[in-house]
Amino acid sequence: MKNLTKYIIYSLILGLVVGLGMNIFAPDLFGPVDKYFFAPLGDIFLRLIQMMVIPIVFISIVLGTANIGDPKKLGRIGGKTILFFLLSTAVAITIAMALAFIVQPGEPGLLDEEAANFESSEAPSVVDTLVNIIPTNPIEAMQSGEMLQIIFFAIFIGFGLAMLTKKTDRIYRLFEQGNELVMYLIMIVMYTAPFGAFGLIASAVGGAGIGAIKSMAAYFFVVLFALILHAIITYGAVVKFVAKKSPWWFFKNFAPAMSVAFGTASSGATLPVSMKTAQERLGVSKSVSSFVQPLGATINMDGTAIMQGVATVFIAQVYAVDLSFTQLMTVLLIAILASIGTAGVPGVGLIMLAMVLDQVGLPVEAIGLILGVDRLLDMTRTAVNITGDATCALFVSETEKDIEKNKPSISDEA
């Protein structure tokens, strides 16, 4: 795993140099090379790892729920997880909007508003999202990749296995064997990661070009700084003061998963790697990791919330619109709620941003102004998202250890 991480980092650097070099020195050649080499190389890796997402989510959450067993413990872990994700998202978007107001990246007249040409898809309402958590057809939910429905069904199955215990021990064993098989297949797929990372970053950087990056430098660096600040301060503080671990130790050991997340720009696709890294390198218990991290890949989108906060303020500044305190609170609330049900796939944050802009009366088509650099930011915010999932898993795992340690034994009670 250590050598694999090194090769992935080398591939990302090489892809960055090659993609940017071709965009500058051979722009006419980039199109065919991207179409027949860079893009297929990245897509093959993404398809291989996405092939494993549904099996690992379903099997791991069933096992995680069944292993927790005690309904009180399940409720306690679930409560900690949801509360952590909601609070961290609120902190993330607050940091983002504060930085955007301080730096003011969207100074009026800085960009050509007529260049915005993004056509948004309709985002689901909060009520629809909550109702649709319960699947009418679990098989169809798996086929269409409805992650919240898959998670609900998996928790339901895991709860049943926990309650029936010995009556269903063969089914439980089947899930354990399925988990071993899936983890082995993921290890095989991960050997293609350096090639996939090279193709993905070369295609993204070569397509965006230095001109697009320059024109959006202020917006880009505000979002990037907010992401780094949130990861270091918010997650670092939780690791240091709640989990009682060294932040440096945490980030160093979780780096392999972060590098894969950066290359794929997909929380869902990175999930198998992030779970394996958290369990083996951070010491997170399998039961907690199997429950918290798949749930986090679906509902924890701190990086996306940061993008939404900065982008909303940025677009308001470009169009010389003064956002009221009520509108800012609306952005905060909608961004938190929108993160629940946001699929962990590349680019979906733009659809959620369309819902946020619509709620505060800003032109949705203005999203086109940030498309040039969104792919690069998407990679970074995905790395932040999965780091938040791991932070929560470590926090829950360590606090559960303390509870078990302090729980009175039978001899003490006697």
Poorly predicted runs of 5 or more residues: 114-118, 343-347, 409-414
The secondary structure category is: mainly alpha
Shape: globular
Mean pLDDT comes to: 80
User: Can you summarize the main beta sheet?
Assistant: none
The helicity comes to over 70%
- Would you count the extended β strands for me? 0
Strand composition percent: under 5%
Distance between the termini: 48 Å
Radius of gyration: 22 Å
Number of helices: 18
Order of helices and strands: HHHHHHHHHHHHHHHHHH
Question: Could you write a compact summary of the structure shown?
Answer:
The chain has 414 residues and is mainly α.
List the keywords.
globular; 18 helices; 414 residues; disordered C terminus; mainly alpha
Q: How would you explain this protein's 3D organization?
A:
- By secondary structure, the chain is mostly helical.
- 80% of the residues lie in helices and 0% in strands.
- It is built from 18 helices and no strands.
- Helix 1 (2-25) crosses helix 9 (193-215), helix 12 packs parallel to helix 17 and helix 13 runs antiparallel to helix 17.
- The longest helix has 36 residues, at 371-406.
- The N and C termini lie far apart (48 Å).
- Mean pLDDT is 80; it is low at 114-118, 343-347 and 409-414.
